[in-house]
């Protein structure tokens, strides 16, 4: 072979440009999650149309009767952090569903292409936390974000109203 270094360079560039083949899922489940009861997590390869039209009962059935879409099921215990790793399907988004006893809000999330190598999910009592605070630190020199001034409604004294004057009838009439 004339240029073995070219082959090695091509292989090195090919591995850098490739998308991840596995997804690490990190789930934080506080003590009060699901009223303190374990719950199932179901990872499925589904297209966005199926994801949008499936009902909770359809997904729950996949725990007992998995179909070809199920990549993994796992029991999540409240008060514990859970980590798992799944193979990313080549041509399908991944849905990660949490089967709460009484879901109240977001109970599943869809990861579309390109799927990242890691996802962190924070659970609340009966839902997936969707408003996770940003942990970004402000760089030095960046001005503080000022709050808009607070306006209070003007204080208005109620008008003083006197009742009508009524004269007492005279006794001599």
UniProtKB/TrEMBL annotation:
Residues 1-19 form the signal peptide. InterPro entries: IgE-like_C. Residues 122-173 are annotated as: Disordered. Residues 122-165 have a biased composition (Basic and acidic residues). Keywords: Signal. Residues 41-123 form the Type VI lipoprotein IgE-like C-terminal domain. This is Type VI lipoprotein IgE-like C-terminal domain-containing protein. It comes from Myxococcus fulvus. The lineage of its organism: Bacteria, Pseudomonadati, Myxococcota, Myxococcia, Myxococcales.
